[in-house]
Each structure stands twice: as structure tokens, then as C-alpha cells.
Amino acid sequence: MEFTAEEMSKLKAYLEHVFKCSGITVKKREKNNDSIEVMIGGEFIGVLYKIIDEGETSYNFDMAILDIDLDGF
Q1: Radius of gyration over every alpha carbon of the chain, rounded to an integer in angstroms
Q2: For the whole model, what pTM was predicted?
């Protein structure tokens, strides 16, 4: 379930559109080929997983938010 360069490009464009942010990058993970890292301004924000089920492909974005990240909000 490795990501193709075309998929990564489309997912990057989609995330930039949805989050209204042009500084998003995606990159392959070193040890896993079923997911890619999502970064904003060089800072890791989450992981995108590729899921293929019954011939259909979907992508699941997982972003952890720590309680200390919420300080000041």
C-alpha cells in the first residue's frame, strides 16, 4: 500500500486547500510504507494512512493534540 508520488502531490494540494495553508509538506516515513508524515513549516503535525478496502481507497488523517499544546488557548 505504498503511496505514489501522484497521490502524495494530490493529498498535499487537498490538505492545503482544506486547511487554507500553503506551507504543508508530506513525506514518506522511514519504516512504514502505508502512511506518510504531514508537516507545516517543518513541524510534524500528523500522519496520513492509506486504507484499501473492497477495492476502494481512502485516507485517514491522524493528528494528536497534547494537553500542553492547549496552554494559552
Answers
A1: 13
A2: 0.87
SS3 64: coil
Distance (Å, whole) CA 65 – CA 32:
22
Evaluate whether residue 11 is within a structural domain. yes
Name residue, grid cell 493534540. Answer: 65
Strand runs labelled E in the chain: 24-28, 35-40, 43-53, 56-62
Domains in the chain, number = 1
Tens-place pLDDT, residues 3-49: 999 999 999 999 999 999 999 999 999 888 889 999 999 999 999 99
Are 26 and 36 within 8 A, CB to CB?
A: yes
Q: Compute how many other C-beta atoms are within 10 angstroms of the C-beta atom of residue 70.
A: 8
